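Standup notes, protein team

Yesterday: finished cleaning the Candidatus Marsarchaeota G1 archaeon OSP_D set.
Today: Glycosyltransferase RgtA/B/C/D-like domain-containing protein structure.
Blockers: none.

Input for Glycosyltransferase RgtA/B/C/D-like domain-containing protein:
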Amino acid sequence: MVKLMGTENKLFTNEFFLLLALTALGAALRASWMVNPATGFMVDEVYYVPAALHYLHPLSTHLNQVSSLFTEDRSVYFYVNPEHPPLVKLLIALGVLMFGNNPLGWRFFSTLFGSISTPALYFTSKRLCPKSALFAAALYALYPLDVSMSQIGMLDAPMVCFSILTVLSMVYEKPKLASVFLGLSVASKLPGLTVALPFVYYVLAKNRESFKRGLKQLLKLLALAFLVYLCAFIPLGYYFGVEAVILDQAYMFLVQQYYGTPTGLAQFFSWLVQFSTSFNPTIFMNNPVVTLLSIPAFVYSLFKLRNINALVLAGFYIGSFGLILAASVIRPIYSFYLEDAAPSMILLDAFLLEALLKSKSWKWIGYALLFIALSISGVLIPIFLYPSTAPFVKEITNFRL
């Protein structure tokens, strides 16, 4: 017997087997690239894979000619990428050691962490909104953007997984474990810092009787998270020296001003107007129903802030989108950035769905929204991932408003 949400449940229930099926389906979709892998670099693999190879075979010029190594020239094979902390790039390097310098080595850990995220989100939702936990798992298992990002050797899938595990640890009242996962999330990619906001809310809310005690505990837990974050730099500090590590991180912040003209939030809503110009498959990376439903779900959570679960969800959502909004002021932003906000959106959607399903009058709306969201994902996944084989893609790509 296991205990969830204060009630005892048998471990092997129909819901458990449905979760296994959803996890297997999500993993199969995320690993489907292995059937016919792209042998060249995909998207930002052109930056992160060479950085991982550099860790395995260090360039002697790392410090002496640093200005020429930090380049946007994609023809440079050993591109030393200083952006973001090194944890996932070290994982890519580990994948290369395990499987060789090939697509499996580059992408193995993205696929693994992307697959783990589905059950992790389920157990998080089981604590926050138990009646719709399976729906949250289904939405995430079939979320086109996460399926796509889990097939590429980039930083996002592991970072998102650690973010979910941070919230999971919080809602199961394991603050030290949450600190560890928070540190791992930020060590994967700096936007992992967004999960720190619900973490702060959670710790202070749990100690609402004594702000001083809550603040003291918060500082200790944040110190633990920072220590975990620093540990990711140990291999780099050992091989390249502390000076190189500091130089890398300083450069990362300095180059932000050279990324181009800020585009605001227009890119996120390109799916509304993209067909009026020319077809671009990136519009299929995001399920618009999941995104749009999260807005009223967020508003609903604000009316439930006395509930610590609603407080955590609202903080997670604010942190995720707050960083995107801040970034849009100083640099271009892209559709795949919504991957970082996907867990908060889906958890909020599940939170709202549970409220709808509890109401006799509104239950049908909840089921209808879920059906529409899952149906859209079912259509979008083959269009985006398999454009040459999906039977209905040709008609859609030739469509113009």
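Follow-up from PR in the comments: DSSP finds 18 helices and two strands in the chain.
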